[in-house]
UniProtKB/TrEMBL annotation:
<keyword id="KW-0046">Antibiotic resistance</keyword>
<dbReference type="GO" id="GO:0005886">
    <property type="term" value="C:plasma membrane"/>
</dbReference>
<feature type="transmembrane region" description="Helical">
    <location>
        <begin position="225"/>
        <end position="243"/>
    </location>
</feature>
<comment type="similarity">
    <text>Belongs to the UppP family.</text>
</comment>
<dbReference type="GO" id="GO:0046677">
    <property type="term" value="P:response to antibiotic"/>
</dbReference>
<dbReference type="GO" id="GO:0050380">
    <property type="term" value="F:undecaprenyl-diphosphatase activity"/>
</dbReference>
<feature type="transmembrane region" description="Helical">
    <location>
        <begin position="48"/>
        <end position="66"/>
    </location>
</feature>
<keyword id="KW-0472">Membrane</keyword>
<protein>
    <recommendedName>
        <fullName>Undecaprenyl-diphosphatase</fullName>
        <ecNumber>3.6.1.27</ecNumber>
    </recommendedName>
</protein>
<dbReference type="GO" id="GO:0009252">
    <property type="term" value="P:peptidoglycan biosynthetic process"/>
</dbReference>
<comment type="function">
    <text>Catalyzes the dephosphorylation of undecaprenyl diphosphate (UPP). Confers resistance to bacitracin.</text>
</comment>
<feature type="transmembrane region" description="Helical">
    <location>
        <begin position="7"/>
        <end position="28"/>
    </location>
</feature>
<dbReference type="GO" id="GO:0008360">
    <property type="term" value="P:regulation of cell shape"/>
</dbReference>
<feature type="transmembrane region" description="Helical">
    <location>
        <begin position="123"/>
        <end position="140"/>
    </location>
</feature>
<feature type="transmembrane region" description="Helical">
    <location>
        <begin position="255"/>
        <end position="272"/>
    </location>
</feature>
<dbReference type="InterPro" id="IPR003824">
    <property type="entry name" value="UppP"/>
</dbReference>
<keyword id="KW-0378">Hydrolase</keyword>
Length: 273
């Protein structure tokens, strides 16, 4: 009986990681889906160590996919700092914009993260915020921006950063909020997508560093080592393929698919709960 219980728990954690990883890159709120899955699978996970762990797996997938863009950005950023070489000024400027846009979410997370988790981590709230995410995606579904990396400005970057801060509420998609804000400001799909996932990198790294102590001091870590490993693996693999798929969706301009999905899931939850 104990063995069968353990196996079932392993399967549940693997499913949690798989779905979190798949929903992290796409605009349907991975945090909202994680809460919903815990509810329906009957798994109660205390603290943020699990969420940070699977988010770190998603981060690795993002780093692998964007490795060439990241290397170009970082090398150009530091080259400009050292030499003031004008040929890489756009890379420096883009990097500074990433830093500036990260600040709102960091500030909100530091001061209000526990309060947000307590106030908004409820099924009906997530249902409503999924509908809101769907509405935002619906409104920008036909937009085709013209602004490339070098066309964006500080004011726009701050607005995108504020959108990321709002997405700390479960059910509000982080990628959805930032991409919607960027496209509403006239950014091209490629620029909006790249900026959104570059924003994910410092947030995820920061959360991981801050949570290392909590993870290592988790009294259940030894017991949950295998389930956590399965969840991490599931998240890593599904994040990679989900982001690849989402990049194709963005190129084809089919964000309406995600709007319909958010409406359907949010509406269903409001109806049955």
């Amino acid at each position: 009986m104990e063995t069968s219980y353990d196996f079932l728990l392993w399967v549940k954690y693997f499913i949690l990681g798989l779905i979190q990883g798949f929903t992290e890159p796409i605009p349907v709120s991975s945090s909202g889906h994680l809460v919903l899955l815990q509810h329906f699978l009957g798994v109660e996970i205390e603290g943020l160590s699990f969420e940070v762990l699977v988010n770190f797996a998603s981060l690795l997938a993002v780093l692998v996919i964007y490795r060439k863009d990241l290397w170009k950005l970082l090398s150009g950023f530091f080259l400009y700092i050292r030499t003031r070489n004008q040929s890489v000024k756009d890379d420096f400027k883009f990097g500074m914009y990433i830093i500036v846009a990260t600040i709102p979410a960091v500030a909100v997370a530091l001061f209000f993260d526990d309060w947000i988790a307590e106030q908004f981590k409820h099924i009906r709230v997530i249902a409503v915020t999924l509908v809101i995410t769907g509405l935002a995606l619906w409104l920008i579904r036909n937009l085709r921006g013209w602004k490339k990396d070098h066309d964006i400005n500080l004011k726009e970057v701050i607005l995108v950063g504020l959108a990321q801060a709002v997405a700390l509420i479960p059910g509000i998609s982080r990628s959805g909020a930032t991409i919607v804000a960027a496209m509403a400001l006239g950014w091209r799909q490629e620029t909006a997508l790249r900026f959104s996932f570059f924003l994910f990198i410092p947030i995820s790294i920061g959360a991981g560093i801050l949570s290392i102590t909590d993870l290592l001091n988790d009294p259940q870590l030894g017991q949950l080592l295998l389930p956590y490993t399965l969840a991490f693996t599931g998240s890593l693999v599904s994040s990679y393929y989900s982001l690849k798929w989402f990049m194709n969706i963005m190129r084809s301009g089919k964000l309406i698919y995600f709007a319909v999905y958010c409406f359907a899931v949010g509406g269903f939850l409001l109806w049955v709960l």
